[in-house]
Design a protein that fits this description.
With about 400 residues, the protein is α+β, with helices and mostly antiparallel strands. It is built from 13 helices and 16 strands. The strands form five sheets. A four-stranded antiparallel beta sheet has the order 2-3-1-14. It has a four-stranded antiparallel beta sheet with strand order 7-4-13-10. Strands 6-5-8-9 form a four-stranded antiparallel beta sheet.
Length: about 400
Amino acid sequence: LERGLNAYSEENRAVLGLDAGDAGAGQDLEQPKQFLDLAGLWDESDKVEFVALSIYIPPKTWNNEKLRDQYETHLCQQIAEAAHAPLELIDIVDIACPEKEVKKGMYGKCLVKCMELVKGLQVTVVAGKDFPVMDQVGKSDPFVTLNLRTSRGRGGGSKSERRTKSVGQKQLPRMALKSQSVVHQTTSRPGELNPINPQFEEGFSFLVYDLGQDLVAVCYDQDNGGKTPIGELVLNIEDIFSQCHTYDDETFERSYALCKPGTKKHVTYRSHMTDGQTRTPYLNLKFRFFTHQSPNGVSPHTMANSVMQQARDRNSSLRLGMVVTSPAFHDEEGSWDTVNVYLSSSYSDFHAERRYLNRYVFPALAVECLNQRLHFKWTDLSEYGASG
């Protein structure tokens, strides 16, 4: 339990009330470790804002994957300029268009996320060990590729299959898809690297927009006839981050046994170059967690307000760009309803659970209710007295 507590910020420790001076805090938790895992989500609830916009999409663009990608890039650039924020901190969560609009005018809704920061991962390909010599005649040239991909079991398929076109369906965030199209590769150095124990020492950076992604490392041997796969690694990003967080410098290094591509079976081979024994090749990787933030310190709330102000102004650069037509909802009298939730308990009962509801669950529900033109309001009737 103590090891888990140390992984969270001082702010969250205060919110949880788990310090010694807060009598009775957390006493109602039956599964404290599992609750602390959930409590890590609080960091995210304070660092994002959502903006719903009405947009115009040319009909040909909507049905063409390449043109639609260019359109979304242009849309993100316009919103980033309006928000005075780096492009990396603006993400399209969803674009939807009713079926009746698909066949004619193409006016739709766009849900945009403004972020305070994006989590990043620095991956250094350190070295290989016991690589098989694939080229018995020419010079062996091992190299490694790195890329992100959606974890299998969470929905794969092509980009178009994971995109949606009608209201009520969801898609992967745009930046998560874009990050998966980038493939990093170590430098090719024919004849310079030790073919059995190559020393790579090359680093690459990834911005991670979806913790459900995997990091895929594939080792190859390049020869005149093309490239031959040696083996691969598939590592879950969330697991890597968890390991990074257990170290003070957010960095750790480890060797992994290579698996046959597409399987979890380790690669084995009989070494004829050394002692003839059966060996398994390993890849040594070094990981460092980092965050990418706005250099001018603009908060997500400020970003969202700036975008909404320009979306309401017909003469703003955002509206004159002929993509954003207005905010998604017009505050006409009687067009919004209010849902009130009251949370009642004494101060000592369900202390941590109540704070979790106030800090994460209720704000998330409030965002979801916006699509239904509902104001979600909550009031904690305990001594804690939170409301929103």
